[in-house]
Amino acid sequence: MTTLSNLQKIDFSTLYKEQRKLSTFKAKSAKDWDEKASDMNGRVFKSIYINEFLQRLDLKDAKTLLDVGCGPGTLGLSLADKLEKVYCLDFSPKMLKCVRENAKERGLENVQTIQKSLDESWDDVPKCDILIASRCMEVDDLEGVLQKLNKKAKKVYISYKVDGFFIDECILKVLEKTINPKPDFIYLVNILYKMGFNAKVDFVNSENTRFQAKNPKEFIEKVRWSLGEISKNDEKNLENFYHNELAKNPPPKFVKWAFISYEI
User: Fold this and answer.
1) Residues 6+ positions from 233 with CB-CB distance below 8 Å
2) Which domains does the chain have, with CATH numbers?
3) Cβ neighbour number for residue 156 with a 10 Å cutoff
4) Which of 87, 112, 204, 230 is the 20 to 30 A CA-CA neighbour of 101?
5) Is 119 helix (H, G, I), strand (E, B) or coil?
6) Is the pLDDT score of 252 beyond 70?
7) Mode of pairing for the β-strands spanning 128-134 and 111-115
8) pLDDT in tens, 100-129
9) CA 132, chain centre distance (Å)
């Protein structure tokens, strides 16, 4: 008889839920992403992150792919000419509209959109050879969603933030704010381990464009998107920072994402 190690006793699923509740950063709704659809559609197809993600996929013998949290279809459409069928799933109707328009523009006839959230029943979602979930796993019950994903593919590829902060330190200093981070990728890896999956972990770079803005108003709105409501005094300080400090002390050029892969 063996006893459980200290590591085996840790309930990473519960720890994830607790950290998520503590986090300053709150979940975005389908409406929030609808409002971002046009902007994202215009800039995400050309990206170091997209190239690094695609290079790490093994498409050998694959015929079908499910792109979860697909946004405007950046990844799924890039792979459609190599596969028989691509399903693009998202809960934002405007993102899915972008997918259909982008597929038509590229002459792709093997792309199907599915409007669903990660929390809904997936009974009617088709099982595919490959499932990708890029930067979309901000969910309340991570273990429950992973169980759902694992029923729909033979190979799974997920990207998840390396740290739990979605705002740059230089901006927090301006706002004089202390924030609670989101849970980061290590929770996901350990939850998978407890579920019996020995996931491989790599890291990919992404351009840090979160707070690039043409004017102070746009900059303030991007900070508000990340943190939620901010005060008039915060707006004034951010405007001063934009004009006087941002060019001299810019945020890091890149942020890292964990690239997590495993087979069912």
Assistant:
1) none
2) 9-168+178-209+252-263 (3.40.50.150)
3) 23
4) 204
5) coil
6) no
7) unpaired
8) 999 999 999 999 999 999 999 999 999 999
9) 11
